[in-house]
């Protein structure tokens, strides 16, 4: 259900780097493909005027809708949980590393309905985050229209 192209619409996080650089946010897309029971994620984002591809693998965890993202080093793992989704329009994912939690809203298009934004904001409040640490990504920029296969 997660396979296909997604646009990163919003992130709620207490990440200091995100707070300091929120004025530099640019359109970001992710191509998700299923590889066995894991998910292969290819994220395209603009940085310093160039398009970068970040590849990650979300490994299946013990419960449906739960994944593990392993980083470099034994202590750098991120638990990923699908909080709510409609495969045709949006996905709300939780990312937890230690005691730190972030919530991301992805859309099948770069803009989602107000009802979906309301759902996202409810999830954000439910984990103790607020509007002052919620960042919305711009929808402009033609570079993100390039598909992952061509990119």
Question: What does this protein look like?
Answer:
The protein has helices spanning 16-20, 114-126; strands at 4-12, 28-35, 38-47, 50-60, 66-70, 77-86, 90-97, 100-107, 134-136. The model is unreliable at 142-151 (pLDDT under 50). It is 12% helix and 48% strand. With 151 residues, the chain is mainly beta. A hairpin with a 2-residue loop joins strand 3 (38-47) and strand 4 (50-60). The protein has a single domain, classed as Beta Barrel (Lipocalin). One of its GO terms (cellular component) is blood microparticle. GO terms for molecular function: complement binding. InterPro entries: C8G (IPR043245), Calycin (IPR012674), Lipocln_cytosolic_FA-bd_dom (IPR000566). Residues 3-137 form the Lipocalin/cytosolic fatty-acid binding domain.
Concise overview:
The protein has 151 residues and is mostly beta strands. The chain has helices at residues 16-20, 114-126, and strands at residues 4-12, 28-35, 38-47, 50-60, 66-70, 77-86, 90-97, 100-107, 134-136. It contains two helices and nine strands; from the N terminus they run E-H-E-E-E-E-E-E-E-H-E.
Radius of gyration: 15 Å
Tell me, briefly, the overall form: globular
Total individual domains: 1
Q: How far from one another are the termini?
A: 23 Å
Proportion of residues in β-strands = over 45%
Total helical segments: 2
GO molecular function: complement binding
Domain Lipocalin/cytosolic fatty-acid binding: 3-137
InterPro entries: C8G (IPR043245), Calycin (IPR012674), Lipocln_cytosolic_FA-bd_dom (IPR000566)
Protein name: CO8G protein
């Amino acid at each position: 259900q997660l396979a296909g192209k997604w646009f990163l619409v919003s992130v709620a996080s207490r990440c200091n780097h995100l707070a300091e650089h929120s004025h530099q946010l640019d359109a970001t897309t992710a191509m998700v493909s299923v590889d066995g029971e894991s998910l292969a994620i290819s994220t395209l984002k603009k940085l310093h005027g160039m398009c970068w591809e970040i590849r990650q693998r979300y490994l299946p965890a013990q419960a449906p809708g739960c994944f593990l993202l392993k980083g470099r080093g034994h202590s750098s793992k991120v638990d990923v949980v699908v909080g709510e989704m409609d495969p045709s329009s949006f996905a709300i994912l939780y990312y937890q590393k230690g005691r730190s939690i972030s919530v991301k809203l992805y859309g099948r298009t770069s803009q989602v309905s107000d009802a979906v934004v309301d759902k996202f904001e409810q999830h954000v409040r439910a984990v103790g985050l607020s509007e002052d640490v919620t960042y919305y990504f711009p929808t402009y920029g033609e570079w993100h229209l390039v598909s992952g296969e061509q990119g």
